[in-house]
Design goal:
The complex is a heterodimer. By secondary structure, chain A is mainly β. Chain A contains two helices and 26 strands. In chain A, strands 2, 3, 4, 5 and 6 form a five-stranded antiparallel sheet that branches. In chain A, strands 11, 12, 13, 14 and 15 form a five-stranded antiparallel sheet that branches. Chain A starts with 11 loop residues before the first helix and ends in a 10-residue tail after the last strand. Helix content of chain B is 72%, strand content 0%. Chain B is globular. Classes of the chains: A mainly beta, B mainly alpha. At the A-B interface, helix 1, helix 2, strand 9, strand 10 and strand 15 of A face helix 1, helix 3, helix 5, helix 6 and helix 7 of B.
């Protein structure tokens, strides 16, 4: 470094500025308590009517994809999804009132995202909705050019049940925006008030990560999830320190497990479930058992529900939700949620034309005929 | 106002202006740089760069500002660029998925990184490399001020690696041409 420009400063000034900045940087480091999963409380009421109820959400635009569910503090169900119109896609949102689903509205568009981030945005992708107390979080991926170039992870929040949303902000989830970041499942709540989001990275070297957020929303860790090869993970906590992630893969979903609250992940065994390489959904029921929604092949013509024991090792086919062989048949990107009243909700993209919502009690999964 | 987003947009505008000053325009270079900065902000070049590359590092921004201000030679010479490229190659390979360890994650809880930068700062101060010491101080101040959630993003970015690659390749080409002329 022989030829640096001459700066006529007192000798002590650069060193003092450096020392001050170093002290400030040390002070800024966020707290990161030892991670532990916060398990959902047991159901306060039992579901009297276990029979399934199926409905389609009100129409939005075409090209329906990636529905995501959450339960609001007052017990209503909220859903967000992607839909396309005029060569551009947006994130739509609706809430299920007592009399049915409210007419949907757009809550994130490429224009609103570009305007907030001061960055070109071509497409939106993979929204994930999550209610945390009075806050409603929405994370979604955005792409600057085409489908893959300049992908970033964005976050917006609503404090009035989805009526209005804050200007989105970009999350520093990768050193390089072209890394093909995607979301796949809702976050897992942590005991320290934080959340952890499973994300997958495409591009040259694929892998999946566990994006840990502090209670303040700051990113505080991003451990790798075993030999995931960029597959889309869905995570359930088994207890305070153990969790299992199921990764979409063909011919069977793969697993990766953690025994230290998500700090490190080790590759587990493949599930004894026939599956395609499409996004799946996993939820831990109040009974402790696991429920998996999965397509049996990569064309998405069959959507099944599999019930697993609490240890995640033994599984059986519980229900066939959709099955068709025509060319337009596609029942994909399921989302699962169990609400506080014990009822289970499944949403999925139905033939890319609508979001289909199915709700049922756990005992319906015990039926004789799948 | 999203200050982080505003930083990214403005920084890319300035970097585009700094790029324009590399053109052989003689006395018009400074004006061309300012014009290019404004042009980038107005016609969508800066938002596109921001979307594709994300917010640039403060190191790259400061080097760009020095270029825009006509301060030469730049602190980033060929030897510095070579050393940085060697480090960046290993860093980005690991971060993009090769190997079990992701060094990028260290930047969220940068205790070890700051501990490594402390002796580096002491060496820079001892050898009176004030430019790099100030650049590093501004990087750390940017992180301390909340401009970056990850300290690595304040220190360097892929565009800076691109600049370093250009400097290294230019040196190689110049040497090749000089060798052929002998």
């Amino acid at each position: 470094m022989a030829s640096t420009p001459t700066i006529p400063l007192p000798r002590w000034l650069p060193a003092t500025l450096f020392a001050g900045a170093m002290a400030g940087a040390f002070w800024r480091i966020p707290d990161a308590p030892s991670p532990a999963f916060a398990l959902a409380p047991t159901a306060t009421t039992t579901v009297a009517d276990s029979a399934p109820q199926a409905e389609s959400l009100p129409a939005s635009a075409s090209g329906i994809a990636s529905p995501t569910l959450t339960e609001l503090p007052d017990g209503r169900i909220a859903c967000a999804w992607l839909a396309s119109a005029d060569d551009t896609n947006s994130v739509w949102f609706s809430v299920r009132e007592r009399q049915g689903w409210r007419p949907p509205g757009r809550i994130a568009t490429r224009e609103s995202t570009a305007g907030a981030l001061f960055a070109r945005t071509d497409r939106l992708d993979t929204p994930v909705l999550h209610a945390e107390g009075g806050w409603l979080h929405l994370w979604y991926a955005g792409t600057a050019v085409g489908d893959e170039v300049g992908r970033s992870l964005n976050h917006t929040v609503s404090t009035d049940g989805g009526a209005s949303w804050s200007r989105p902000t970009r999350l520093a989830a990768a050193p390089w925006p072209v890394a093909g970041i995607r979301l796949s499942a809702p976050p897992t709540a942590l005991e320290d008030g934080g959340l952890a989001l499973p994300v997958s990275y495409g591009g040259v070297a694929r892998h999946s990560g566990w994006l840990r957020l502090a209670a303040t929303g700051q990113i505080i860790d991003l451990p790798r999830m075993g030999d995931s090869e960029g597959r889309l993970p869905s995570v359930v906590p088994l207890d305070g320190r153990h969790a299992q992630a199921v990764l979409a893969a063909s011919p069977a979903p793969l697993t990766t497990v953690t025994t230290d609250g998500g700090r490190s992940w080790q590759t587990g065994e493949a599930l004894p479930v026939r599956a395609g390489d499409l996004p799946l959904a996993l939820v831990r029921l109040r009974s402790g058992r696991l429920l998996l929604a999965v397509n049996t092949n990569s064309e998405g013509k069959t959507l099944q529900l599999w019930l697993g024991e609490a240890d995640g090792r033994s599984w059986r086919l519980a229900r066939v939700v959709e099955e068709a062989s025509d060319g337009a048949a596609e029942f994909t990107e399921p989302a699962l949620l169990q609400t506080r009243d014990g009822r289970i909700h499944l949403a999925y993209a139905w033939r890319r034309q609508a979001v289909r919502h199915l709700s049922f009690g756990e005992s319906w999964l015990e039926g004789d005929k799948p | 106002m999203n200050w982080v987003a505003a930083y990214g947009l403005l920084a890319h505008g300035l970097l585009f202006g700094a790029l324009a000053t590399l053109l052989p325009l003689g006395e018009l270079r400074a004006r061309a740089g300012l014009f290019a900065t404004g042009l980038a902000l107005v016609v969508g070049i800066a938002p596109s760069m921001h979307g594709v590359f994300g917010p640039p590092s403060l190191t790259l921004l400061q080097l760009g500002l020095l270029q825009l201000a006509g301060k030469s030679p730049s602190p980033m010479d060929e030897r510095t660029a070579t050393g940085f490229l060697f480090f960046a190659g290993i860093f980005y390979a690991a971060t993009l998925g090769w190997g079990p360890f992701d060094p990028y994650a260290l930047g969220y809880q940068p205790w070890a990184l700051l501990a490594a930068l402390l002796p580096l700062g002491i060496v820079l101060a001892w050898l009176r490399f004030d430019a790099w010491l100030l650049i590093l101080a501004v990087d750390l101040a940017g992180y301390a001020g909340g401009l970056f959630a990850n300290l690595w993003d304040a220190l360097f970015d892929p565009l800076l690696a691109g600049v370093a690659t250009y400097l290294v390749l230019r040196r190689v080409v110049v040497r090749l041409i000089a060798a052929r002329r002998r």
